[in-house]
Write a structure and sequence with these properties.
two-stranded antiparallel sheet; alpha/beta; about 35% helix
């Protein structure tokens, strides 16, 4: 059984014994023994550990972790301190500065956001080194769909930010369980391949805060100071 250390433990307690998760666990044990896998095993659930269910204000959905050495830290789009910012993250920071005037610092870590109620969730939580998408279809999607369902069913409004086709594919799942109480923002992925097709100019950060404020919820501090 996985120990998250907050209210996710009770919400996800039934998942660990389900056949799909047992199969996923066996797969991961073998992968971590025989391959280089990111993030390190102790960081797989960092997003859930840093952002308790009851604290979630915004969900930003990613695909799978960065797959080059030292990058992945268990948070979608985030990299460890001291690691060069990947192009997608550079574009996110450009949009952040244009939208809110907040300039990114040297670090590419988004841990401050996670600690302020922004769940940075990848739909697949692990990946082989240098092989994007290599752990898709192993069972993670069923696990993270359950997380999305639980969040969507929560009575307190929140914002779901869906960047790219993979994340946008979760829109129906959110709407099915959320009954219209949440704000869903969809846009192209921030990668260089698609950022200029509609990602830039989306004003995601201010839109999140307008919605939260309108619903009597304290807005997110999008600065990147710890």
């Amino acid at each position: 059984m996985v120990k998250i250390g907050n209210d996710w433990d009770e919400l996800l307690k039934d998942e660990w014994d389900k056949p799909y998760y047992k199969s996923l666990r066996s797969f991961l044990i073998d992968e971590y023994k025989t391959e280089t896998v990111y993030p390190p095993a102790e960081d797989i659930y960092t997003a859930l550990k840093l952002t308790p269910f009851s604290d979630v204000k915004v969900v930003i959905l990613g695909q799978d972790p960065y797959h080059e050495p030292g990058q992945a830290e268990g948070l979608a789009f985030s990299v460890r301190d001291g690691v060069p910012k990947p192009p997608s993250l550079v574009n996110i920071f450009k949009e952040l500065a244009e939208d809110t005037g907040t300039e990114a610092g040297e670090s590419g870590s988004l841990r401050p956001w996670a600690e302020r109620g922004v769940l940075l969730l990848n739909t697949v939580l692990t990946v082989r080194a240098h092989q994007a998408g290599s752990h898709r279809g192993a069972g993670w999607e069923q696990f993270t769909d359950r997380i999305i369902e639980l969040l969507a069913a929560r009575s307190t409004p929140m914002v779901f930010v869906l960047w790219g086709a993979n994340a946008i594919s979760k829109k129906d799942l959110i709407m099915e369980h959320g009954v219209g109480r949440h704000l869903i923002i969809s846009a192209p992925h921030p990668s260089p391949l698609s950022a200029y097709r509609g990602f830039f100019g989306g004003r995601y950060f201010s839109r999140c805060n307008y919605f939260l404020t309108d619903n009597g919820i304290e807005p997110v501090d999008w600065s990147l100071n710890a």
